[in-house]
Amino acid sequence: MKPLTEQDIRNSFINCSKGEAKRLSLPRDLDERPWDDLDFLGWRDPGAPDRSYLVTERDARPVGVTLRFPSSQRGFLHRSMCSLCLTTHSGGGVSLMTARKAGTAGREGNSVGLYMCTDLACSLYVRGKKIPEPGGRFEESLTLEEQIARTTGNLTAFLDKLYA
Ligand SMILES: [Zn+2]
User: Fold this and answer.
1) pTM above 0.85?
2) For residue 145, how far is its CA from the centre of ligand 1 (angstroms)?
3) Residues whose CB falls within 8 Å of the CB of residue 68, separated by 6 or more in sequence, listed in order
4) Which terminus in the chain has less CB density within 10 A, N or C?
5) pLDDT in tens, 105-119
């Protein structure tokens, strides 16, 4: 994706108030993020451990989503699969994140859940730039481009649900 500035990111959020978007913590290393290898930028909020954020591109514009995840999760030994990049992790490596919907539906308290890599590094797992624990990626018959397309397709489907 194209590198984003702090202002791009703050203006991109679709499911929180403008005030919230202005205050939330952004990564300090935006200049050093591996943008060429990212389908989305994801980060955890150092000041609010139950919050993460992701920003991706949709129709050539940045779209940001605020996510919450439970601070204590059951079933830590259990392996689960990320529904975006299909990597499996154990020990809390996958979390059920929830995103408030955009617009009126969100203000009325509606949200959408998504199982996702807790470290939000899906783009890097797909490209083999970050290696999960053994068995975390299964043998794929798809090419890398097809796997990337599948991941961005899964992300688009999730964004569609936020607007629904
Ligand atoms: Zn993932």
Assistant:
1) yes
2) 16
3) 50, 51, 52, 97, 98, 99
4) C
5) 999 999 999 999 999
Span from the CA of 125 to the centroid of ligand 1 (angstroms): 7
Compute the distance from residue 91 Cα to the ligand 1 centre, in Å: 14
Report helix, strand or coil for 138. Answer: coil
Question: How many angstroms is it from 86 CA to the middle of ligand 1?
Answer: 6
CA of 32 to the centre of ligand 1 (A): 21
Q: Which residues surround ligand 1, an ion (CB under 5 A)?
A: 82, 84-85, 117, 122
* Per-domain boundaries in the chain: 6-163
Give the whole-angstrom CA distance, residue 133 versus residue 47. 28
Output the CA torsion sign for 13, 15, 26, 131: negative
